[in-house]
Amino acid sequence: MGIIAKSGIDLNELENLEDNEVEDKITEIRAIIEEYANGGFDLIRSKQEEEPTFFQQNENCFLDLLDA
Predict the structure, then answer these.
(1) Nearest 10 degrees: CA dihedral of 31, 10, 2, 33?
(2) What is d(CA 53, CA 62) in angstroms, rounded to the nearest whole number?
(3) Listed ranges 8-12, 34-38, 61-65; the one with the highest mean pLDDT
(4) Phi first, then psi: what are they for 66, rounded to 5°?
(5) Structure-model confidence comparison of residues 57 and 22, the more confident one
(6) pLDDT digits over 15-36, tens only?
(7) Could you tell me which residues come within 8 angstroms of residue 20 by beta carbon, excluding any fewer than 6 positions away?
(8) What is the DSSP string of 1-67?
(9) What is the pTM of this model?
């Protein structure tokens, strides 16, 4: 939901768009989601390389990763 809010797409406007325009909006949202996901995977990979046991020995590893 945060991604949709940040995208600035008016969901009410989608009702009045043609199918190809709706597809374009969906593609735009998908691209934003993929960018955020790839950024998160990058952070996880970096932390794993920096500290190989970080995710194995820490119950709160993802919370701690956000604090870093």
Answers:
(1) -10
(2) 13
(3) 34-38
(4) -70, -30
(5) 22
(6) 899 999 999 988 988 999 999 9
(7) none
(8) -HHHHHHT--TTGGGGS-HHHHHHHHHHHHHHHHHHHHHHHHHHHHHHHH-TTTTTS-TTHHHHHHH
(9) 0.69
